[in-house]
Amino acid sequence: MAVDYTFNPPLGIDLGTTFSVIAKWNGTMPEHYRTGAVGKEDTYQSVVWYDSKHEKYLTDRLAYRKTLTAPEFGIIGVKRLMDNRDAKIQLGAKEHSPMELSAKIIEGMYGTISGMYPQGHFQRTEVVVTVPYYFKAHQCANTREAVELAGLECAGIIQEPIAAALQYALQMTRDNPDEDRDEVMLVFDLGGGTFDLTLFNLQIRKDKMTFEVLASAGDDRIGGLDFDEALAQHVLEEEGLVLDNMEDRASRLAWQKILSACLDVKETLSVTDEWDLAIANVTADKHIERTITRKDFERCIQPYIEKIARHLEDVFVRAGIQQSAVTRVIKVGGSSKIPAMTELLEDSIGADRVFGNTNDALCVAEGAAIYAAYLDDPDVFGREIEIGTRSCHALGIEIEGGEFFEVTPANCKTPCSRSQIFVPGSAEQRSVNIDVYQGSAKVAKENTKIGTVQVAIELDDGPEPEIEVTFNQDAEQALNVIVRVNSRIINESFATV
């Protein structure tokens, strides 16, 4: 019997750095909501502005416009701060955590869709939320917390490239229901703030769809925001303008005007070779009028192109396969449309295998809605879905001398469990703090600290007790740490909390 999803549809959220999307499963297919600009746009701008006079928050495009005129009250790109739960973001005189501000964006989108139904009719409060594949464990945990702060339940987390591939795979099964498929796919996901490369095997059979991740690479500090800033810095230099005091309101306003104009130029240069930049009243006595060519823009972002090229090489090294094995590349994210990115992929893998997603801005949220429907009812598609993931980063602990001791390597199949035995530094030691890090640097403190497990050593444990540390990592990158002394469990701690 068909399920009526009218007032209770499974929901998926793509919580993006610059734009976000929320989608539903309508019973037969994923369908995105038009949440932006009071339902007139497909995407929802990931911007928060605090109205200190009325003590309320604005989000979406209105918040973006207010931030251009009063930047001290607004935040663009809060997703980039999700790696630091202790960050204090000042909007006016009020401090916020990254999770609190991300929750405002989620609240805004959810409030828009629930308002599309008669009051009290919309029932769904569980959502699946997406994260970049390259997010670390604590970033995934912070994202989950943002969902909960918005008053919703996080039914699951799915990595953005997997969500995009899931949307693609479902479309393939709809178009060719009886056809088996075997593909080696690369999802090239370059959005407003993060960059993900995910290489995986896709196998479609009548009774099952299998996604097996082979390797991933990326950077949560490469995206459209960086390209905008690089072009804006170029404009400042060419115009001889210096904005060296961002505590000054006039400087902040000028910078936001230039950034906004450069964003428009960047997008336009994806379809034309040159465009005129015109900004009136950048400062009291300064107007900007100049022609920007695509070559100018590409020179500005060349350092980022080179980083992306290195990541592209690295993902194949990690997977242990050649570029020729790839049958299809799918570009996802607004910045993937930049011609230089297409040229990079075509040169590396082949022009005949590079595809633009049919809807690069919406496919991630729609994939999340598909996954939400599957979690809701595993029989919804008439096929089992199996997703085999791998860790993006090594996990380990700090040992004597400040070195990083790797317990779980990068690119390890997840879920995974690895253990290591240690001994205290001296017989008199009655406690040990085990600091858990994630990363690849040899010096522990150059990696990301996930948390600390405090271990008490009792007299009965003997002069040289064995301390066994076990790392359990799940498919969502969440980490559980269990510590045993002489086989006796004395502590269990979720290092992501």
Summarize the structure.
The protein is α+β, with helices and mostly antiparallel strands.
Structure description:
The chain is built from eleven helices and 28 strands. Helix content is 29%, strand content 34%. Helix 10 (339-349) links the parallel strand 17 and strand 18 (354-356). The protein has four domains: 11-161 and 362-385, ATPase, nucleotide binding domain (Nucleotidyltransferase, domain 5); 182-218 and 307-356, 2-Layer Sandwich (Nucleotidyltransferase, domain 5); 224-300, Actin, Chain A, domain 4 (Alpha-Beta Complex); 395-494, Substrate Binding Domain Of DNAk, Chain A, domain 1 (Sandwich). The strands form seven sheets. A seven-stranded mixed β-sheet has the order 18-17-12-13-14-19-22, with helices on both faces. Strands 1, 2, 3, 4, 10 and 11 form a six-stranded mixed β-sheet that branches. It has a four-stranded antiparallel β-sheet with strand order 21-20-24-25, with no helix packed on it. Helix 3 packs across helix 4 (137-149) and helix 5 packs across helix 11 (363-376). It has helices at residues 36-39, 60-69, 98-114, 137-149, 160-175, 224-239, 249-268, 294-300, 302-319, 339-349, 363-376; strands spanning 11-14, 19-25, 30-32, 44-45, 47-51, 56-59, 74-76, 89-91, 94-96, 126-131, 153-159, 181-190, 195-205, 208-219, 274-283, 286-293, 328-332, 354-356, 384-390, 395-399, 403-408, 413-414, 416-422, 431-438, 448-456, 467-473, 479-485, 488-494. It is globular and about 75 Å long. With 497 residues, the protein is an alpha+beta fold.
